[in-house]
Design a protein that fits this description.
Shape of chain A: elongated
Largest sheet of chain A: none
Helix content of chain B: 55-70%
Distance between the termini of chain B: 55 Å
Radius of gyration of chain A: 30 Å
CATH architecture of the largest domain in chain B: Orthogonal Bundle
Structural class of chain A: mainly alpha
Structural class of chain B: mainly alpha
Helix content of chain A: 55-70%
CATH class of the largest domain in chain B: Mainly Alpha
Largest interface: A-B, 28 and 47 residues
Radius of gyration of chain B: 18 Å
Largest sheet of chain B: none
Number of helices of chain A: 4
Strand content of chain B: under 5%
CATH superfamily of the largest domain in chain B: RNA polymerase sigma factor, region 2, helix turn helix motif
Shape of chain B: elongated
Strand content of chain A: under 5%
Number of strands of chain A: 0
Distance between the termini of chain A: 72 Å
Number of helices of chain B: 8
Number of domains of chain B: 2
Oligomer: heterodimer
Order of helices and strands of chain B: HHHHHHHH
Amino acid sequence: MSDREQNQNEDRELEQMRNLLKSAVPPRIDAEPRRDLWPQVLRRLDNAPERVPWWDWVLLGGAIVAACAFPGVLPALLYHL
Amino acid sequence: MDLAKRFAAGDLDAFETLFREHQRDVYRWIVRIVRDHAAAEDLTVEAFWRMYRARARFDPSGNCGAWLHRIAVNVALDHLRHAKWQTTLPEDLPADPAPDGAVQCETRAAIQRALVELPPRLRVVVQLGLVEDEPYNEIAAALGISLNAVKVRMFRGVRQLRQKLSEAGITP
């Protein structure tokens, strides 16, 4: 079978599947939220705790380990801060 | 300062303006994937919350709409992954027969079941491409993948769907 014939076959199969799916799952044309969602977004912002990203914890842990392992560098570090 | 820059700086008024501009569009993408009004509303809120949380990573010179599409589709995909137990599409099983009357209720349910049972990353491509007639390049942009990857997922999705349907005794 040539590439062209194969492509035609695939297109035909796709079209058949499209028709079958559409007969069972109608497309959503007029999809729109039924209410204003802004108050909910504000509530979500108010209720959500400010999470610290995991890499910040890793960084903090690394800094503590480094401070314990090399306490001598602490004065120099504080001086530069 | 323009709207996108103000939003990136954490300005809540700018965020509300962006929300008003994009709310319908985000909801539209989500509802066409999850096909459930109530869930789509909750997920729209979730998408905008994720958007606000990620504002520091937002590039004000970039395309805000495209960025939001990606967030919306990811939120919807996460929902599908966590709703694997669901075996029918929530709001797509009407009591009345299909408009053309050709497809019986049982067959329709079997087709929906086959679609729902697809892996979410294939299902979203098949649903948006074949049911909603969304152009492949739009799907690629929303999923953050290449056009070729969309075609591959479509091919795999249709092949799996065909197999599931033939097991259920349905031939397209």
